[in-house]
Amino acid sequence: MLRYYTAGESHGKCLIAILEGIPAGLRLSKEEINKELARRQGAHLTGAYQGYAGRGERMKRIEKDKVEILAGIRKSVLT
After folding, report:
1. Who contacts 46 (Cβ-Cβ below 8 Å, separation ≥6)?
2. Which parts of 1-79 are beta strand (E)?
3. What pTM value is reported for the model?
4. How many CB atoms lie within 10 A of CB 14?
5. Are strands 77-78 and 73-74 parallel, antiparallel or unpaired?
6. What is the number of alpha carbons within 13 Å of residue 16 lying toward its C-beta?
7. HSE-up of 79 (CA within 13 Å, CB side)?
8. pLDDT tens, 34-63?
9. What residue segments make up the domains of the chain, in order of their start?
């Protein structure tokens, strides 16, 4: 079972997530996650989120999300 816990605010300084139940050994890099975040941030132009509310030019300038992995990963492999 996958569980997640969050803290912080969506438009605040940071949003913290704790993910539980992801199998160890899964390969994951912050570069891959940041690539998906960048795709979402520019979604008003292209991509799966095309045309969704809140994805106009204003939000593109405001949102500069980048992931920071603090624990649970070593050399791009989940522990």
Report:
1. none
2. 3-8, 15-20, 73-74, 77-78
3. 0.62
4. 9
5. antiparallel
6. 5
7. 7
8. 888 887 776 555 555 555 545 566 655 666
9. 3-78
